[in-house]
Amino acid sequence: MAKTDNYPLVSIIMATYNEPTLLIKKSIHSILNQDYSNIELLIADDSTNIETIEVINSIANENNRVKIIRKGNKMGFVPALNYALREAKGSLIARMDGDDVALPDRITKQVNYALNNPTIDVFGGSINIIDGNDKIISERYYPTSSLSIQIMFVFRSPFAHPTIMFRRKIIDTGFFYNPFYKKAEDIDFFIRLYKHGYKFGNLKDKLLNYRVPNDLQEKRNREQWIFNHKARKKFILRKPFFSIASFVISWTYKHIPNTFVARYYRKENNKIS
């Protein structure tokens, strides 16, 4: 997509907190170097590290597509995402994390998908999983059909959150991330959208190199799985899926103890490492 004048503005939102300077540079430049140019990058920055702050400021000073959001006191990750959402001007909104690397045609592929699938409201894609040295250690694909996405909600998120793009009407109707689910803001967000009839999809294409740091990852993600489990129990069971299969899935989920989720995470984490 060489010319983007007639294509929609895409707002990419990123919440940052003391990312290493090399990683934050790679992440930001992977967005600014997209082959789709009609973008704005909103960085809600909570950093206290002066080197990280200076890198973000320097890039923003050189590129008017970058807007920095700072509030003077610590926002926290989920409120930072919401601040960025409220500032977004695009008709399509994409997520990005400060240590991941978007593939050069990510935005082009997602915009084309949005234009060709007008009934789909939320959509992500597949990922490479990389270590701290940018080495690809695994890859992950996500379901593409509506039914398979619904079923996958029971076991894990059917999306790679940093690949998500969604239509502006979602925030215009009042949907934002819930700070209560600070370790599961994505799954909570998706389930609430599902309950209100929004449609989901995924591209088969890889869109992003998703970074998995070596230190503390298991502890952080195990906690995240438990919060995800609680979010699913709270919301899915209020409005069971409208099919026999989905009823069985909902019933099963109601009876999964949180300790099992933690054990299941350890097993899944070993597959990646």
Defining key terms:
globular, Spore Coat Polysaccharide Biosynthesis Protein SpsA, Chain A, alpha/beta, 273 residues, nine-stranded mixed beta sheet, 42% helix
What does it look like?
Strands 1, 2, 3, 4, 5, 6, 7, 8 and 9 form a nine-stranded mixed beta sheet that branches. The chain has one domain (10-214): Spore Coat Polysaccharide Biosynthesis Protein SpsA, Chain A (Alpha-Beta Complex), CATH 3.90.550. Helix 1 runs parallel beside helix 2 (50-62), helix 7 (185-195) packs parallel to helix 8 (217-236) and helix 8 packs across helix 10. The longest helix is centred in the last third of the chain and has 20 residues, at 217-236. It is globular. The protein has ten helices and nine strands. The chain has 273 residues and is an alpha/beta fold. It starts with 9 loop residues before the first strand and ends with a helix. Helix content is 42%, strand content 20%. InterPro entries: Glyco_trans_2-like, Nucleotide-diphossugar_trans. GO terms for molecular function: hexosyltransferase activity.
